Amino acid sequence: MNDLDLSRELTTLVAGIPGVVGVYPAGPLHRAVGLTVVNVAASDDQAPAKVSLVRDKEKGLRVEVAVGVLSTYPVPRTLRTVGDAVRAHLDAMEHDGGLDVRVTASHIETPNPAAPSLTP
Amino acid sequence: MAMRDDQEGDVGPEEVLDGLDPEFLDGHSVEELSDYLDSGRSPRNPDIENSPGCLIALDALGRLRSATWAMLEAEAAEDRGRDDKWIKNVMDNISREARAGRDIPITSVDPEVRLTVTEGSVRGLIRAAGDGVGGAIVGRVRLDGDVTVPGEPISIDVTASGVFGRNLLELAREMRAVIGASLREHTELNVTSIDVTIQDVHTQRTASTEVPR
Amino acid sequence: MDARSPLSDASDGILASRAADGDPAAFEALMRRYGPMLRAYAVKVLGSNDEADDVVQESFINAWNHVAELADVTVVRSWLMRLVSNKAIERLRRRKYHRDIADWDAPGPARNTPERQVEASMQMRALSDALGRLPAEQRECWVLKEVGGLAYADIAEELDLPVSTVRGLLSRARRALLKDMEEWR
């Protein structure tokens, strides 16, 4: 499997986790020099590949995930669930060297915020 | 550029405005009066203020100015039905990442997994919590202290607007309570204080028909 | 967010502070509040609806990028006016390369569709028409000064005209408009 497909798989996996409302293109790593970076922009016609994958000979695989989460669930719990799911998915595959998974909540959505009270 | 620099020279005899020439303005020009109007008629110029001709011209200039603003308001009002497309255009073209701010760590038991929430998302959380208090609209949100280091003391500073008629002390207290609860539930920040400053009072111009839940 | 969002009750300062913190909903509320007015202003400066749309949209994108640098968030309206003025001036400057001042006609007010219910009073219509009849440079200078609040020197510098020319253009515009206005009475 190439990294673009892997990114798509991870994106779909993460998007399905309860409490996750969106998966966004991750991180400033797109601009990293001399590393193999999945180009998330090149995937308009297929399932989105928003998860960033960076392979480094010394440091191994670095995975960056940016999510929007719902405040209906405690945010730390949702983030841990995402981290565990990504970790488990990668552990089921072969990868050389270290693993560095970063999960960031870049947006916390509060559903249906209460309408302002009409009575002062 | 072939443009004449003279100020009054091209006004033909038929265009001469009775009452707007210097001879009727006690030696002042319309431009001078316009500048005087711009200055808010301050400092007061008795020479102008005591000239009936000048007062008439000032009045005309003032009416022209307010008519201009009224015209724009009226044209803007005609235009409101058009709003949505251009607004969507702009919203699609603004970058939200620029305001992400600092990365705030969340404990992870797995050393190979790092978890963070962005400062921008926590600001959004605080806004949503504060806005949820009836009659409150949150303004600016600041997280003071090094949020990137777990356990560092953090103080939260929030400005807000309270609806007219609401007890503002009580409003601030309720906001502090819900903001504190929300931060405890969703972050691991060591929040040592939450300051809510009600800096504005608003009325409900667009009375919502929604019932509070 | 719809037009009845609770945010539409908030002051400019509150909305600008939120926008500076990265709240898109607050920024949208500001756009709803001032967009139509700013567009009307841009139409008057430029004499063109299409260009006015572009100018207002570009100005708001600019505003989002810089609202965090706004030292006094309560002056957001005049700040937005200034952003629109600057973008409109860019257009005028570009246009000057393409036009011979002698044969460029200001388009008339472009919104005179007969079927549209015009709420503006006769007087405002008359003023709008009078503005539309002014030579382009007179109209540009007058609107930038009277609505945009630009100083003579700024207009002169931005439009590459001598200050004396700007004064002359303004003087003629003012006279023409005052004269028209006297006729409404």
From TrEMBL, chain A:
Protein name: Uncharacterized protein
UniProt organism field: Labedella endophytica
Automatic annotation (TrEMBL), chain C:
Cross-referenced Pfam families: Sigma70_r2, Sigma70_r4_2
Record InterPro entries: RNA_pol_sigma-70-like, RNA_pol_sigma-70_dom, RNA_pol_sigma70_r2, RNA_pol_sigma70_r4_t2, RNA_pol_sigma_r2, RNA_pol_sigma_r3/r4-like, WH-like_DNA-bd_sf
Superkingdom of source: Bacteria
SUPFAM superfamilies per record: Sigma2 domain of RNA polymerase sigma factors, Sigma3 and sigma4 domains of RNA polymerase sigma factors
Keywords, alphabetical: DNA-binding, Sigma factor, Transcription, Transcription regulation
Start and end residues of each RNA polymerase sigma-70 region domain: 30-96
GO biological process assignments: DNA-templated transcription initiation
Gene Ontology molecular function: DNA binding; sigma factor activity
Domain annotation RNA polymerase sigma factor 70 region 4 type: ranges: 125-177
Family designation: Belongs to the sigma-70 factor family. ECF subfamily.
Name the record gives this protein: RNA polymerase sigma factor
Organism the protein comes from: Labedella endophytica
